[in-house]
């Protein structure tokens, strides 16, 4: 009996001790008793290709409160890229190549974009002049009118030139000795008066060379119209100066990045905190082509819980700072990552 009692007591002791040492999870939803009117946001973010002079921190909340260029409790630290490429601005040709590098068209779309605007009663819509320009590296256009005698005299020469270039029998190369995508076409300003008015055509025939990405600027042909060689020589002289297919790639613009850290106090209502590219007194940025790739070293709410995260159950640690250590690369223009976080006041008791 004594031995059995000892065994029984030992088993009971082990079970009780195990139950005491084992944590059982229980979740209760309660009304938040926190009466604080503000909430602290802690951050440590590295902007990979943005100089510190061009970064500002701002907040906005649902009450309509907006604060820009906050500097209190914020530290900016200049950082190097990789010790190699120090960054440089995109050239105009690089921007155009990258903007249109993934452009593609269906057969029907291409037929529309390549067609002459000779008549409003053909099978094409001819509704978007700018799309025609954006679809080709260069577009050589003869603006004419049916009633114009000079246009009628010039028409055979233009048709020879148009056939030679569009068929590929006459190649026109860019500054990198690559074949440029050149389209030759004509626009009848009687049928398409609105397009000609928008382009400010004031005489006929008027012959212009447009470059992709620029519909307000063009090269005006003012040479002889006696043969197609004059037109070919003009086109080659202009196109041979442009780098349209140089294998452009996305790269750093600035010679440095910036690590920005600190905290801001915000109202305990829905809102945003934003790290924003901004102009300076000395330099104006083209914000559409600014690289806002970044790494979030730390982002949390409340009194900075970095030290306390180690005490949390492992399955909850990732929820305290879900963005920590993550990098967000922007590989296209006109893009900026947005991060959405739902903040819930959570208390852990043992």
UniProtKB/TrEMBL annotation:
Pfam families the UniProt entry points to: COPIIcoated_ERV, ERGIC_N, Thioredoxin
Keyword Transmembrane helix: yes
Signal sequence range: 1-19
Tree of life domain: Eukaryota
GO cellular component: COPII-coated ER to Golgi transport vesicle; endoplasmic reticulum; membrane
Compartments where located: Membrane
Keywords: Membrane, Signal, Transmembrane, Transmembrane helix
Domain Thioredoxin: 101-240
Keyword Nucleus included in the entry's annotation: no
InterPro entries tied to this protein: Erv, Erv_C, Erv_N, Thioredoxin-like_sf, Thioredoxin_CS, Thioredoxin_domain
Name the record gives this protein: Thioredoxin domain-containing protein
Phylogenetic placement of the source organism: Eukaryota, Sar, Alveolata, Dinophyceae, Peridiniales
């Amino acid at each position: 009996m004594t031995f059995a009692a000892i065994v029984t007591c030992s088993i009971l002791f082990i079970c009780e001790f195990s139950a005491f040492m084992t944590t059982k999870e229980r979740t209760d939803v309660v009304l938040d008793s926190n009466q604080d009117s503000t909430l602290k946001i802690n951050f440590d973010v590295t902007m990979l290709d943005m100089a510190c002079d061009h970064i500002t921190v701002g907040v906005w909340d649902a009450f309509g409160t907006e604060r820009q260029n906050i500097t209190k409790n914020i530290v900016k630290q200049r950082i190097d890229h990789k010790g190699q490429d120090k960054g440089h601005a995109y050239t105009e040709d690089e921007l155009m190549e990258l903007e249109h590098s993934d452009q593609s068209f269906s057969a029907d779309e291409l037929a529309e974009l390549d067609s002459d605007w000779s008549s409003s009663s053909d099978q094409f819509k001819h509704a978007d002049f700018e799309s025609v320009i954006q679809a080709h590296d260069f577009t050589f256009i003869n603006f004419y009118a049916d009633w114009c005698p000079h246009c009628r005299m010039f028409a055979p020469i233009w048709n020879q030139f148009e056939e030679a270039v569009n068929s590929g029998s006459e190649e026109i190369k860019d500054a990198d000795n690559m074949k440029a995508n050149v389209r030759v076409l004509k626009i009848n300003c009687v049928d398409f008066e609105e397009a000609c008015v928008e382009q400010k055509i004031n005489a006929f025939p008027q012959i212009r060379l447009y470059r992709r990405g620029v519909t307000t600027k063009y090269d005006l042909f003012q040479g002889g119209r006696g043969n197609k060689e004059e037109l070919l020589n003009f086109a080659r002289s202009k196109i041979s100066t442009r780098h349209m297919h140089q294998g452009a790639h996305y790269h750093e613009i600035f010679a440095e990045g910036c690590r920005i850290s600190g905290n801001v106090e915000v109202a305990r209502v829905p809102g945003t905190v934003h790290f924003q590219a901004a102009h300076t007194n000395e330099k104006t940025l083209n914000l559409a082509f600014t690289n806002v790739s970044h790494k979030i070293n730390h982002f949390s709410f409340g009194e900075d819980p970095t030290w306390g995260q180690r005490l949390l159950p492992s399955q909850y640690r990732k929820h305290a700072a879900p963005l920590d250590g993550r990098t967000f690369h922007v590989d296209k223009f006109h893009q900026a990552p947005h991060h959405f976080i739902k903040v819930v006041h959570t208390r852990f008791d043992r």
